[in-house]
Write a structure and sequence with these properties.
7-stranded parallel β-sheet; 10 strands; 40% helix; 15 helices; alpha/beta; 326 residues; 13% strand
């Protein structure tokens, strides 16, 4: 990982736990597998503890680590550094994706509830008027009583969102091609096709993985199906939504959006999305940040402890499932 990532993830207590679990030098942080200064440590390494900024584990990189048996990732997705060569080598992989899913789900639920209450619109009106505001007029028919929320993707995050929404008086629809009717019933949601979800939801929240087949999952035609005044929440990947088409809908004022990710990842300075009153735009903050990073580090150390004790990982990454996960 990059050295600043180590500093953010591992406080003194976490480093002490790490050194108690493993024969390691916590001061050694490798950001380049070809770095001669790291050659000796890599040659002896049985485990890699990785994080954001880890370079790809190519065949060439793995050749420098003849004793490597497993990778524990102290973050979410492993797609940026776990390659086919890792699986061919027979490595096992664990990830702290479960811990990282929690704050994303919390952000999403907050966005859903604020959107239903039309909080962003009310705040904009109040800021502009700077005087008494008739709340009944501002909120109109907004509110979270018996609204319909469409969840796109029963991913780890999508399932947590569904769980967190249970106490509220909401109808939850789900689109996921890998979820059958029986599983949908266990989740307490109504399984529908994607067009029906778009057409029927007051708020749509996207939790599908970034795959070739999910690019522009919400294209111009599908966005047009969403009801007037509906909100699109995206905390997944920007490529799942056609940015140009969504921008047109938002500029027209027909839809609302809460966007933690965009395509491109950083919008150009001239994008109207920065200033529109019906858009909440945040710089990819839904995942673990601040004190949430400690939870993710401890999750990775939990997996390292299982490995040290000869136990299976609680949250292993499987090669055959990676193609349809984040």
């Amino acid at each position: 990982m990059e050295p600043p990532v180590r500093d953010a993830l591992f406080d003194r207590a976490a480093l002490d736990r790490l050194t108690a679990l493993a024969d390691t030098d916590p001061a050694l942080v490798v950001a380049d597998f070809a770095d001669p200064a790291a050659a000796g440590a890599l040659a002896a390494a049985e485990v890699l503890l990785t994080g954001w900024g880890c370079p790809p584990l190519t065949g060439e990189a793995l050749a420098r680590m003849p004793r490597l048996r497993t990778v524990v990732h102290a973050a979410g997705s492993v797609k940026h550094h776990i390659t086919r060569a890792c699986w061919e080598r027979g490595l096992t992989v664990a990830s702290a994706a479960g811990a990282n899913a929690l704050p994303v789900a919390e952000y999403t639920v907050a966005a859903i509830l604020f959107s239903g209450k039309r909080v962003l619109h009310a705040a904009h009106v109040y800021r502009e008027k700077r005087a008494w505001v008739n709340a009944l007029d501002v909120i109109g028919d907004g509110g979270n009583h018996r609204r319909t929320v469409g969840v796109v993707g029963a991913s780890r995050i999508g399932r947590r969102v569904i769980e967190l929404l249970r106490p509220y008086d909401l109808t939850v629809l789900l689109y996921d091609p890998y979820v059958d009717a029986a599983e949908a019933a266990r989740l307490g949601v109504h399984r529908v096709d994607l067009d029906t979800l778009a057409r029927s939801s007051d708020t749509v929240t996207v939790h599908a993985p970034e795959l070739p087949e999910t690019r522009h999952l919400f294209d111009r035609a599908r966005l047009a199906l969403m009801p007037d005044g509906a909100t699109l929440v995206n905390t997944a990947r920007g490529s799942l939504v056609d940015t140009a088409a969504l921008t047109e809908e938002l500029v027209a004022g027909r839809l609302h959006a809460v966007l933690d990710v965009t395509d491109p990842e950083v919008l150009p300075p001239g994008s109207p999305l920065y200033d529109l009153p019906n858009v909440l735009l945040t710089p990819h903050i839904a995942g673990s940040l601040g004190n949430e990073l400690g939870r993710m580090a401890q999750a990775a150390l939990d997996e390292l402890e299982r490995y040290a004790r000869g136990l299976p990982y609680a949250d292993p990454v499987h090669a055959d499932r990676l193609g349809r996960s984040a």
